[in-house]
Design brief:
By secondary structure, the protein is mostly helical. It has two domains: 35 residues, no CATH class; 108 residues, no CATH class. Helices cover 60% and strands 9% of the residues. It has three helices and two strands; from the N terminus they run ββααα. About 3% of the residues have low confidence.
């Protein structure tokens, strides 16, 4: 039978707390990390995951706003709607900015699209940034709680 003995221990070595039997009946050592701040790595990992989620949300909001802005430019500068790329941007922006269509009624249709869809792009950026900020603050809080 093998015995685990720790004669010298530095702060970098975890302590062996107890022994237990595995599912085959063999005895094994159970290692407990009792170093100061041992939970910091777990909390920092959770915090990093939330920070990554916040970055992804900001990125997606930016991409959606970019699609809407590109469609506005295509409409204002009379791009060929028969072109596949222009058509894709316009259709996608129309679905993304759907709730904002007709918010303001302006005589010039290009200006109306620019204003209404521009508001939609701004809302995507603002709301996406707000949600990402909340998630990032939660991630930073989790990391700070683990460091203490």
């Amino acid at each position: 039978m093998r015995r685990v003995v720790e004669e010298t221990r530095t702060d970098m070595q975890p302590a062996v707390a107890a022994r237990r039997r595995d599912r085959f009946g063999r005895r094994e050592a159970v290692v407990v990390d009792d170093r100061p701040g041992a939970g910091a790595a777990v909390a920092a990992g959770a915090g990093n995951g939330l920070l990554m989620l916040a970055r992804v949300i900001r990125f997606v909001a930016g991409v959606l706003a970019t699609i809407i802005i590109a469609a506005i430019l295509f409409r204002v500068f009379d791009a060929n709607q028969g072109n596949g790329i222009v058509n894709w941007f316009t259709d996608t922006a129309r679905s993304l900015a759907g709730p904002f269509d007709g918010m303001f009624t302006i005589k010039n249709p290009k200006t109306e699209i620019a204003v209404n869809w521009g508001i939609a792009a701004a809302v995507y950026l603002i709301v996406g940034g707000f949600i990402a900020g909340l998630i990032a603050r939660a991630g930073l809080g989790a990391a700070e709680r683990g460091v203490r």
